[in-house]
Please model this.
Amino acid sequence: MKILVCISQVPDTSTKVVLKDNNTVVESAGVTYIINPYDEWYGLIRAIELKETGVASEIDLVTVGKANTEPVIRKALALGGDKAIRIDADSNDPYLTAAYIADYAKNEHYDLILCGKESIDYNNGTVGSMIAELLDMDYIGFATEIKTEGNTAIVKREIEGGEETDSCNFPLVISCQKGVAEARIPNMRGIMAARTRPLNVVTPAALEPVTAILSYEMPPAKAGVKLVDPADMDQLVELLHSEAKVI
Amino acid sequence: MSVIVFVEHDGGIIKKKNFEAVQYASGIAQKTGATVTAVILGTIADAEIEKLGEYGAQKVLHIEDNRLNELHPRAYTTALLTAIEKEGAKIIIALNDINGRAVAPRVAAKLKAGLVAGALTYPDLDKGFVIKKAVYSGKAFAYVNVTSDTKVIMLMPNTFPLAKTEGKATIEKLAVNFGDKDFGIKIKEVSKATGEISLSDAALVVSGGRGMKGPENWYLIENLAKELGAATACSRPVSDSDWRPHHEHVGQTGGTIRPDLYIAVGISGAIQHLAGVNGSKTIVVINYDPEAPFFKAANYGVIGDAMEVLPRLTEAVKKFKLHK
Amino acid sequence: MNDVENVKAIKGGEFLIRETAAESIFIPEEWNEEQLMIAETCSNFLAQHVTPNLNRIDAQEEGLMSHLMDEAGALGLLGISVPEEYGGFGKDFKTSMLVTEKLGAGHSFSVAFSAHSGIGTLPILYYGNDAQKQKYIPKLASGEWKGAYCLTEPSSGSDANSGKARAKLTEDGKHYLITGQKMWITNAGFADVFTVFAKIDNDENLSAFIVEKDFEGISLNTEEHKMGIKGSSTRQVFFNDCKVPVENLLSERQNGFKIAVNILNIGRMKLGGGTVGASKDVITLAVKYANEREQFGRAISKYGAIRHKLAQQAMLTYAAESAVYRASQNMEEATELLVESGLDEIKAKLKGTEQFAIEAAIIKVHSSEVLDYVVDEGVQIYGGMGYSAEAPMERAYRDSRINRIFEGTNEINRMLTVDMMLKRAMKGELDLMGPAQKVAGELMSIPDFSAGGEEDLFTKEKKHIANFKKAVLMVAGAAVQKLMTQLAKEQEVLMNLADMLIELYVSESLQLRVEKLVGLRGEESCKEQLDMMRVYINDAAEKIARSGKEALNSFAEGDEKRMMIMGLKRYTKTDDINTTQARRNIAAKLIAENKYCF
Model:
């Protein structure tokens, strides 16, 4: 089975967002970049597990990004993966990102395409299902467990108020969240292999974005917390009712 | 011209957030001089469907096929695309929830339409078609302009308060031709926690962290939640230590929720946790440590021992409900 | 700058008499991508496996430390520098130093790791024959077998060669029977392989043996109750006619002491790296606490008294780190040159290490004392919580203390520093006489008050450091002349000289690092580093002055003394800079970043 894992580069979870250029750009200087955790801990590791158990024969990683994303791609390769493909473009439009990836993947015959449930920078969570539509494949989102039985995927996914178990034949796109796999620490062998695994740069298809981020805004500063005496919970309830109006 | 809004139901009952979607579509339709056509799938009584009129739908296309009673993303996509073509719609509204994310992006990809996932405002037509959404896990907002002709917007639930109107909707049954591919996903098993309030829908949430000291103390949280009619949630360390089921974990790498009220008990308030809850309207922090960073993000704070405060608060809520 | 002198690699101890070009040293800001990945693996390992379990580790939960070593082994961390042919990754010394540094924040685990991969493995790796290496190294590199090192005895610590353990050949000539008592043996509770030092019959010097835990005649005492690193297994090991096959004699008979000394050199450098890693971790905890703790309505990080401590912690650590990696690189280059000249790789490694034994001793003393300062002020910043076992600083404080004691006490290492310098001078390996005489001559002449040529960002500091060298040469030269062979007995003077050498070496290392960094990133991006450099050198000047003065007052007399005291004043004169503001600047960066960020 041939697996494609979609990886995106995001700022590390503790980054403070700083805006510049009249709020049109997010400052990237001094930011530590990481692999989107959902992509890494769940999508990538599950793919590696499937290769370790002999279910998958090849794992490719794909990223839409400029050359500055290569260190993060190599971090992913240090965990596993046979080769990485970098589609040489910058995109924060989900359709464009999905279209680039689908254009690359259309002749590669992947049986399974994995991505994280969403990226922690744009929080869209839509690229996976778009790729599925563009490649005429099924899509299962918010997966919490992925098993295989021959040519069929058995996937547990989150639904409102519970869990559903689906089965679907390959090829298929799945977006992953907690439960699909456990994060791993890259070992020395992997780190040294990362250098030798191919990282191919690919020209993006001639496409245009259909959305654009015009500007950013910081959330309003929070007014100071109103402390309530722990012995007077009646007061808190009163405040929540009459002031905050939430109960 | 109509604005299409994709509406869902749970076993024949339409949940609140779907009315929000219709109301949102109605707001946009008024701005663009269009009408609102809701699309609803599967088995549901007309009397329930009519409610959509109260929130601004002029017409509802009901695709009755009972195979659609469960989520089949490709079938739903086919159904929606059929409705969109029939109506010549250029603006499509869905919810930014689990089902919305399985269907709306497919529709957008098919139509090469710009998509905004998690809309927090009505589109600003002066600047193009600009919608605000949260980014960087709620640490900032972005103004996104949709430049394509056809536009797909996924509304963030619990953003706009609902206001009923005197409107009425006409209901039309629509037949759709499905292919085999539309039902490629087979549903083998569904397990729902009965009686529990779903975390993603809950307006009120009570959440516990490591400060609760152990799973044996969680009955205090559950009691308060029961009294409030709230869902329960937890922080990552609690989920990692298996004190609580994993779906309760809210935070950067867990779930994101935007309730009206989030009560955080014994949670210090690390950035990663805040990312999951910073969209909450009101945050109450209960913690014995006055230095806990969460207090900086809270509206109300109680510095005290959770073991003592929780029962008191539960009592206070009980009293409040009796006197209402 | 095309200085022909710098084309020839600097020798150990030569820093006293030679200039170094900033471009020629290695600075941590130059780690490559792969090294950074390795560093991240180490940090992730601690965050996931060690830090959440520190209480359980300190309680010596059964099997836990051994299990952690297994996990580290699975990640490949136990075989970083072991040659690939023995199952390791053949990485260079700097990289293994980086691993030691990153794992240095691991408290008891760090000690277990260092003991295993350093003294527990290297004697066999460097001195074993092919059969011994084949048998033991792969399993030590993977962690399948854990290693320990048995040198110290109840009555022989600093005086290692005075050990009473004895080895006797059996009648059939097939085994040695070792009898003796070893003390303070790290990892003893779970080690599979011990390198044991004992004297064969009436030999004067120790021999070394590879002993497996299942050999007949080994028993362990219970765990020592220690002030700190409570999670590290520390036991007495008893050998009672312990039967060791003759094939397990390591290297030649009576070569044991030399093995011990050489391995110690590496251990001392590594201790520098490990304590720097621990310091960075403690500073991050301290600044985070200072940013959260509020008193009188403000975070305590806003108060000058706290800022002073944070700045001081950071500056000392940055300086120590500069010295550690400068010396590591020097050692590596020396080794490479020896390999190029035809020497076998392992012999080259040992010779290269021996070459920089002086720097290793300096680093050991300086870094361990920096860590003790950092944890002490860490407790102070934490206030009452610093004294509480519920907060992390208390453990850091207790765990730090051993670093000034093991791997050779700091007193021994100070004396060795001077001792080795002077021995090399006597052997003609290091020309101290010439430069010392030049300084003496300079004292007689009128000081040069000319403004000198063009000044760049580092002119002043380079001048100070050049003067520090003169100060050391002057005092050392005078001490040798005056005291001659008695100098070895004047330990206080040796300590004074050592302190001067230490401050000189670290000052120079820091200055060169900042110079190279500015060359890479530009002055604007290095403001805090420049502040650290200026303040450190300013403080070092005073320390050198004080030590020098104390020494001179103890052995010099009359006019000669007066002249040298004046010379000392001249050579330790620095500018009056606003060190308070400089420290505030350094602290401000730490506070803004909320972690150690240099």
Observations:
- Chain A has six helices and 15 strands.
- Chain A touches chain B through 84 residues (CB under 8 Å).
